[in-house]
Specification:
- The chain is an alpha/beta fold.
- The protein has two domains: 7-140 and 262-313, 3-Layer(aba) Sandwich (D-Maltodextrin-Binding Protein, domain 2), CATH 3.40.190; 141-260 and 315-346, 3-Layer(aba) Sandwich (D-Maltodextrin-Binding Protein, domain 2), CATH 3.40.190.10.
- Helices cover 38% and strands 19% of the residues.
- The protein is built from 13 helices and twelve strands.
- It has helices at residues 13-32, 44-47, 53-64, 76-85, 103-109, 149-152, 180-193, 197-205, 216-224, 238-245, 275-285, 288-291, 327-346, and strands at 37-42, 67-72, 94-99, 112-113, 136-148, 171-174, 209-213, 230-234, 250-252, 259-269, 301-302, 322-323.
């Protein structure tokens, strides 16, 4: 998840940055010794101690006989920005984390090279979000409101339920300008209510918002501290709370309208210096040694459906209706939608 990190890892931010720096140094020295180095740009939580990177990179290095230099670049948007800044002299071979909402922007920036791995059949057709073949999906999830069902006392089962007066100042959300789930919620409301219908929902919903945080981490921390009984998260968040906090009362509301999907992808950087290794890594990302680490490290669904989900995933929500907007429309209208959202929230 573009960058879901759970409360127990807040204190590890400095460690994550250290890991990233060490990875860069390790990659450079390995290069000097003649060992091929694959450089990957990704978001911060991917390289953290509890992230996916430390679990899958040693497996790939054993397979390829190479070294992997995984570099954290903030969030997925910053990964794309870094690729654009380095377009004339690319330093990365692979970019991880660009999702379906960012697809059009990435393609228009012309920073990725087309590539379709030979094992693409492992990705279900409905999750192959880039028909041009520049990005290969590796995981997916759905935005959802996670809530303390014991504290709340009623079900969240659709956007109408989010307007209930009993939720006044009890919901935590994230800013769509700075947070991928925050943007996901805004796009979700556009998908459900249309434009301009989404504005009326937000005008009615705004009084129920306790605070808007810059990122997911802060909202999750406030929720865990009991500051509010509802927060914007993912349909795959409840398994975490079951495993690490023994809380089966933290559930994801199953919305009748459906849930907005986030599909995360990876692609080869245009001008990659290690194209063959990059191709091998993307193909590797679809196989079970990579995919089996996703559920309990990314807390997302693995793209490879042959991977058996952990028992805790019986608490995850798997929506029957998957919502999504055309990435080209998102790129065209995103700034307008965010600006309108800001006006509504600032006047509430």
């Amino acid at each position: 998840m573009s960058t879901q990190k759970f409360p127990i890892v807040f204190a590890l931010l400095a460690i994550a940055l250290l890991v990233s720096g060490c990875a860069q140094q390790q990659g450079t020295s390995a290069n000097n010794s003649g060992v091929p180095v694959l450089t990957i740009y990704t978001y911060d939580s991917m390289v953290s101690e509890y992230g996916l990177g430390p679990k899958v990179i040693p497996k790939f290095e054993a397979q390829c006989g190479c070294k992997v230099n995984m570099v954290a670049k903030g969030d997925a948007g910053q990964v794309l920005s870094a690729l654009m800044l380095e377009k004339e002299n690319p330093r990365a071979d692979v970019a991880i984390g660009i999702d379906n909402s960012m697809l059009s922007a990435a393609l228009n920036a012309d920073v990725l090279a087309p590539f379709t791995p030979g094992n693409i059949s492992l990705v279900p057709e409905n999750l192959r979000f880039d028909k041009s073949g520049h990005l290969t999906a590796y995981d997916y999830g759905y935005f959802a409101f996670v809530y303390d069902s014991d504290a709340l006392g009623f079900d969240l089962n659709g956007f109408n339920s989010m307007l209930d007066s009993r939720l006044r100042k009890k919901v935590l959300i994230q800013n769509p300008r700075t947070s991928s789930p925050g943007l996901g919620l805004l796009l979700w409301t556009v998908a459900v209510y249309g434009d301009p219908g989404y504005k009326e929902f937000w005008r009615e919903f705004a009084p129920n918002v306790l605070t808007v945080t810059a990122g997911w981490d802060e909202s999750a921390g406030l929720f865990s501290a009991g500051e509010a009984p509802v927060y914007l998260s993912y349909a795959t968040s409840p398994p975490y709370y079951v495993l690490y906090e023994n809380r089966t009362d933290y559930i994801a509301g199953n919305f009748a309208e459906g849930h907005y999907v986030q599909v995360e992808g990876m692609g080869i950087v245009n001008g990659a210096k290690n194209r063959a290794l990059a191709e091998e890594f993307i193909a590797f990302s679809l196989t079970e040694p990579f995919q089996e680490e996703i559920p309990l490290n990314q807390y997302m669904f693995p793209i490879n459906h042959s991977v058996e989900l952990p028992d805790a995933y019986k608490y995850a929500l798997k929506p029957s209706v998957q919502l999504e907007l055309d990435p080209a429309l998102v790129e065209q209208k995103q700034e307008e939608w965010i600006s309108e959202w800001e006006k509504i929230m600032s006047s509430s």
